[in-house]
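SAMPLE LOG
Freezer: B-3
Tube label: C17
Construct: single chain, 230 aa
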Amino acid sequence: MTTPRQRAHQQTMSDILRIAHQQLRTEGSAALSLRAIARELGLVSSAVYRYVPSRDELLTLLIEESYNAFGDAVEFAEARIRRGDLGRRWLTIGRAVRRWAVANPAEWALLYGSPVPGYHAPPERTTAAGSRVPLLLLGLLADAGLEPSQDDPPMTAALRRELDRLRPSLPGELKPEILARGLLAFSSLCGLVSLELFGQFTNTVTQFPAHLDHQLIRLGKSLGLPAPSA
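STRUCTURE (predicted):
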């Protein structure tokens, strides 16, 4: 059972992160301010720094929280699809990625937009959470049992070694060529979503859900996945 002091600490941390998310949406990540958060909470600055010692720590907390909310949303959607319907699982992942990004554009920009000047996310804090959605896709490719084909372009020995080093931490027995396909598909998906959210499709595409579905099916074919069920 938590003590009143622990509950008060948890509530203050929750309030700090809530206000920080509001700042993200109104001011952007580069303008995050612990002093402004303290003012909104009615606290002196030194009191807030006892909870969050620096702006970098605040950014790291926001990134961890956002990656995990993103992962929860996409994993929940994908888990509802029949395991054998590989094409539908991929389509569902892509749709869920876009849906979360559209609902949380400031958090998407924090995760996949321009880096915050002077800030470097600590990998020991952010890599696991940030890998959840890519690993979901790679798990799907492992379930599909894909093998390299003549359509895979040649790979340098150095790149093959680099991708091979990742294999122990990945689901299944993904060959480097299949891992490369997955990386291309995920980066293409993120690019499509970012171009939409950051206004780069102006005067080009307005039917965003239909456009995404069309491109996801094309990407699924390049991955070697069957078309999604009707």
